[in-house]
Amino acid sequence: MDIEDINKKAKLLIDETWKDSSKWHENFNEARKLLEGALSVDPSDETTLINYGTVLCDMGRHKDATKYLKKAIDQSSKNKHAFYNLGVALINYSSHDDAMVYMKKAKAKKEGVLTWEAYFDPMGH
To answer: Dihedrals φ, ψ of 110, to 5°?
Structure first.
């Protein structure tokens, strides 16, 4: 599998999880492992950085997630999910103000085809 195929597979696993929550642990762990493998081949692939950061965020590893999402942004990412998902990660472990900076920037960006939005419950904060 090439890196694009790995990202497609990871997205399918996450999409499946939202349809059948009983697969959450299995699918998120499989997606995490797939993406880690892709990062070992190309540690600067933008889509993989975003997806890996998103998986970490959804697994509750918010501080770890910021490292990968910021790296994608620092590489000039224009992907809405990099910014929005960084905001989600930051709101869960940092300050509301820091998070809002990235969430506001996300509004002017376009979504990536192979990336997705991190889960966020605004009532949970």
So the answer is: -105, 145
Give residues with Cβ within 8 angstroms of 29, minimum separation 6.
Answer: none
At 122 the pLDDT is 67
Compute the distance between CA of residue 64 and CA of residue 60 in angstroms, rounded to an integer. Answer: 9
Which residues, at least 6 apart from 59, have a Cβ–Cβ distance to it below 8 Å? 28, 32
C-beta of residue 69 within 8 angstroms of C-beta of residue 49: yes
Please indicate, yes or no, whether the overall pTM of this predicted structure exceeds 0.90: yes
**Cα dist. 97→60, 75, 91 in Å?**
20, 23, 8
Domains and CATH numbers, the chain: 3-109 (1.25.40.10)
Task: Locate 69 and state its tokens.
Answer: 């999402």
pLDDT digits (tens, 9 = 90+) for 8-61: 999 999 999 999 999 999 999 999 999 999 999 999 999 999 999 999 999 999
